Amino acid sequence: MPSKNVLDEAEQSLSRMQAFDPKSLDRAADLGRQMNFDAAVAPAERVVGLYKRIPVSILPDLIDSQLQVIKSQADSGYNLFKQMLDFSNEQNNAAGVRSSLLEQANKAYDLAFASLWQFVAFAVASATDTSVIEARARATLQNVEDRASELTSSLEERNKAAQQILDHIQKVAAEQGVSQQALFFKTRADEHEAEANNWAKATGALAAVIAAFAIFSAVAFKIDWLRPQNALDAAELLTGKVLLFLTLGTLLALCAKNFLAHKHNSILNRHRQTALQTYRVLVDSASSAGSQDIVLAQAAACIFGSQDTGFSKEGGDSSPGSRSVLELLTKSAVSGAAK
Fold it and tell me: How far, in Å, are 160, 189, 302, 311, 317 from residue 263 at the CA level?
């Protein structure tokens, strides 16, 4: 096991050489055509390529002396490249220094290969070792399985959250739909309530008229021009009073009947509105699906069943079509509860 300091230094030096860009040595823009290092680019690419064949992953398998060799050789190569990058036309013996650097660049690969070839071979052997490949494959497969498990768990949690949101949206939509439908019954109840008030006023007015006419009839004989002079006048006066009383009584009965009918329909629609708004509580509190069906059947019978309108003598079960539908609903609910 190599020491940490030696390993870190070797990794740093090797990584620096692998990351070096040989084309940066050209420097034709600032050194000109005669003094640039264009000829050193190709040799530098070979040197950098050699270092790239030594993966950093094999360094922990080497000993300190071998790491020192890699570090020393890499630092030497980088120092040569650094001298080319720092070269100036104005320094002493610039042409001689340039020629020396180019000659070292041409020999750099041979010198580096002589020191590093065994590490390249070790890297190739490690890369093609079946046991190493198998271990890496197992590690990769385990990593994939772990990642897949994490993604599956995450998807399941998101699916649950999405389902909860969907259920909430459906519940809110259902409640809004029920409230909207209940509004229709409320509107009808308000209309019948207004009509009932109008007919109540008409009934009261007619009752007042009849009472006034009765009082007037009781004292009419005291008025001279209304007092009958003979039996025929008395018969005609009596007949007129009877007909007028019958007419006013019929109108009073009609107004009262209309008042009671509209009042009845107002109360009936209020009851249907309340049933439509509250049936959900009974459905949710039911312990089984069969019980819920029974509650729904009863709610449907209450809401949509034929009821006495107040204008006829027939009861709420007078409609064969509605009765048969509700009987089928109730039978289905009871059979579902039995199962």
Answer: 50, 9, 18, 11, 20
Q: What is the DSSP string of 41-97?
A: HHHHHHHHHHHHTS-GGGGGGS-HHHHHHHHHHHHHHHHHHHHHHH--TTSTTHHHH
Worst-scoring range by mean pLDDT, 24-38, 51-65, 153-167, 169-183?
169-183
Q: Name the band, by pLDDT with cuts 50, 70 and 90, for residue 18.
A: very high
Question: What sign has the CA pseudo-torsion 81, 87, 92, 93?
Answer: positive
Query: Rounded to an integer, what distance in angstroms lies between the CA atom of residue 312 and that of residue 110?
Result: 117
Residue 305: phi, psi to the nearest 5?
Answer: -70, 150
pLDDT digits (tens, 9 = 90+) for 248-297: 889 888 898 888 888 888 888 888 877 777 766 666 665 566 666 666 66
4's tokens: 């940490």
The answer for residues whose C-beta is within 8 angstroms of residue 326's C-beta and 6 or more apart is: 297, 300, 301, 304, 305
Between the two ends of the chain, the Cα-to-Cα distance in Å is 74
Give this prediction's pTM.
Answer: 0.41
What letter represents residue 306's amino acid? S
207 phi, psi to nearest 5 deg: -65, -40
- Distance CA(153)–CA(161), nearest Å, equals 12
Report d(CA 54, CA 60) in Å as an integer.
Answer: 12
Residue 226: pLDDT over 50: yes
The pLDDT assigned to 183 comes to 78
Query: How much is the CA Rg of the chain, to the nearest whole Å?
Result: 54
Q: Is 110 exposed, middle or buried (0-12, 13-18, 19+ CB in 10 A)?
A: exposed
